[in-house]
Amino acid sequence: MDNQFLINVSNISFSFDGNPDHKVLENISFASGVDEFVSIVGPSGCGKSTMLRIIAGLIKPLSGKVLYKGTEIKHPIKDVAFVFQDFALMPWLNVLDNVKLGLSYSDLSDSDKTNRALDLLTKFGLSGFSGAYPNILSGGMKQRVGIARAIASEPRVLLMDEPFSALDELTANSLRSDILFMLHNKDISVNSVIMVTHNVEEAVELSSHIVILSEKPTKIKEIKEIDMKYPRNKHDKRFSGYVDDIYNTLISQY
Amino acid sequence: MENLITTTLTLLIDTSYSWIRMFLALGLSIVISLFVGIYAARSKRAEKIIMPLVDILQTLPILAFFPFAIYLVILFVPGAVGVNVAVIGLIVTSMIWNIIFGVYESIKTIPKAVLEVADLYRLGILSKLRKIFIPAAMPRVIGQSILSWSIGLFYLVTSEIFSTGSTNYTVSGIGVDLTRLAFSDNYYGYIIGIVIFFCFVIITRFAFFSPLEKYFNRTQKQYVSTEDDHTKFISGGNVKSSAGAFVKYIKSNLRSFGLSNMRSWINSIYAAVKEYRRILAISLLVVLSLIGFLYALNILNGTLASYEYQSLYALAYSFIRVWGTFFAIFLISVPVSIYLIFLTKNIGRYVLLFQILASIPATILLPIIVRSTMSMPFHSEIVAFVVLFLSGIWYMIFSVIASHGSIPSETNEVKNIFGVRGLLAFKKIYLKAITPGLITGAVTAIAAEWNATIVAEYFTSSGIQNGTVLSSVNIGVGKLLDLTLNSGNLLQMLIVLINFVILIVVINRLVWNKLYNKVETVYG
Known about the structure:
The structure holds 2 protein chains of 2 kinds. Chain A is α/β, with parallel strands linked by helices. Chain A is built from 7 helices and 10 strands. Chain A has helices spanning 48-56, 95-101, 110-123, 139-152, 169-184, 200-206, 237-251; strands at residues 5-14, 25-33, 36-41, 63-68, 71-72, 80-83, 157-161, 192-196, 209-213, 220-225. In chain A, a hairpin with a 6-residue loop joins strand 9 (209-213) and strand 10. Chain B has a two-stranded antiparallel sheet with strand order 1-2. In chain B, helix 12 packs parallel to helix 19 (490-523) and helix 15 (379-402) crosses helix 17 (422-456). Chain B is globular, with a radius of gyration of 25 Å. Residues 221-247 and 249-260 of chain B have low confidence and may be disordered.
């Protein structure tokens, strides 16, 4: 297997009850390399989020493997972090402790962890909120905490499960820019992002590759490369061409 | 053999009597709860009065009022009817509170749009009740009724075996039968009785509650969320890693115990001492004012002062007994709850099992517990501990399970993605996640324990034999209430009850309300 890819998804099949006749995912293969942003799009309920959880090592596939730098992922690892759709902040921990949770793998002392978490909060414009509990934060702030938690342990791969779908458009736009900045900024550890989304425009705006999935049993219909420079202009003809093209592939009956 | 058949038949008939009382009480509780709960949820003025009242009533030791209630009811309605009315009334007072809360919360959480639709189509009050409020409340009503049934059984058995000195208030029922069988050394009969009781519990659960649950939950989401599919896999490896995490934790704590932290250590010790001094000062003030009060009372009326003194003394002893047992309940229910919520996939099955186990009231085992521990040292304290423990434990566990819906479904995933393990997971995730459930559970568990003191601390065979005292602690409020009833000293009973209620209300205000408020600011 080629090691130039950070994540290599190879022939993944999955069924919820373990029965090969009830497959949700069938022979899914794709890869994500350094500086790449891969989006997974597909119809509702086709197993996109399940796919992402298999990559994270949260769920075991029926068959196939997920490799990180050539080594099989069998359980969650430090280098692969996750951003959740509904933020998944622990309501009983304040913002600082939520971010520190992302440093659980780390050997840093508690005070070093606190300093690192405070640094991240400052970077994400949340410096005054370290002692606040999630219930007083807006959706955008919650997701910023979720992202700060995810990158706290300096992962190389970031998995994101519809990270902007619970946010209003303005907040989502600003967070999308943050993510792209992170991916292309050498000071930040994240080298590769895999995102599940149902928003085709968002996928075209952010991705280097888009994996288009079919209805169940879910297979890959096509992997589309988006060859446009960042930041991408939504009014560009090529942009809308990509969007139309992906929509057509999604609704096509093959 | 013939004897055995007669015993079995008697047991079957008497258990049926008990069950009729239970169904009557449950039906009455549901009807009253629907009206009170809906009214409180729909009328702001009613809400302000009803809900705090229900809140206080559910933590009061209602069982303690039973001797008094039975005394009053029989004054007006003599004979078997009076006793049955009192028994059913008592069971209602034990069943009703959590059903009212269930109705109230269901009505409060009806989406606004649904009510607007009702207004748009100009539904009348009856149509609203029939089409919106009652269907919205019923799933919770059934859920709460299952818990109420268990609580009711406890009171049923207790109320049946209740008896007072000269007058025998015993009614026909399984509680009386079991006590009689245990103390006439008819162990076969006792075992048959327990088996019959257990069968009735199982049949009621599966033939009565399960279909109702299924019917009323047909439009609701499944109890166990789909995320639980991942839970089993996710929980793998926890045990292995906890040892390593523990060593790491110790190391990091040792590291952090450096000079730089000395100041914060000193500060926190100083704060603790200050807090401790505050509590000490308040306690001293309370004790001094009580002594002053007693002294003043003694000058006015010596008898009243001695009653007050006895009440306080008994309450102090029972307080230690109740809270000591609660400590044991806490130690056991925390790991059990954590296992149920985070580490097993089969929470639904465990809940069913626990519901059935919880339906076996501690009081049904009381005769045999008393009998088997009789030769042991501190036998009365052991009996009291076992009864208090069994009375309280299920409240804690069910309360935590009920609160598990408010825990984010991705909690386990977050824990695993970020490698949160061992003690850190216990401290930052498990324990904090179940805290709201533990607090509500503690309130109800302690209330149940206080309730149970009346049978846990003093148990006589007067209802079935010659009034021999079979188990009696040295001193306690439950025992004192029993004794005052036996001697017909109504004045002293009232004084004990007033002190009892004041203690419970003060603890609610000082301890639980504070904790509730704290939790509310974080979890609310």
